[in-house]
Amino acid sequence: MSLVIQEHARARLITDGPDPRRVPVELRYDPEEPQTVQVRLPGADRTLGLDLLERGLRSPVTRGDIRIWPCGRAQLILELHSTDGVAVFQFDIAPVIRFLSRTRAQAAKRPPAATTTPA
Q1: Can you tell me whether residue 21 is helix, strand or coil?
Q2: CA nearest 30: which of 16, 18, 11, 47?
Q3: pLDDT at 115 (0 to 100)
C-alpha cells in the first residue's frame, strides 16, 4: 500500500490585473514515484522533480518549462511556460516546507532498494 502525501495550499496567480487571484493548489507525493511531485493547479497540473522544488526554496532553478525561486523569506514563485503563455504562481513558503518535511520523513521510512549480487 502506498502512503501518498498531500498538502493543500493556496497560491496567488499573478496577472497583469491590479489584484492577484487566489487559487487552490494540491501538492502530492507518491512514494512509488519518489523523485517526483505532482502540483495540481487550476488548468495547469504539472509533475516536478522533488529536487527541483527543494532547490527552488534556496535559489532560482530552471528545468525545461518550469522555473522556481524564493521571493523574500516567506514566498516561493513557480513559473510555468506553455504554448499558451506563462503562468506565475506565488506561494506562501510554509505549506511547501511542511509538505517537503513530510516527504522526507516518508522517504526515510522507506526500505532501501534491494540490491542484486552477480551470480
Answers
A1: strand
A2: 47
A3: 44
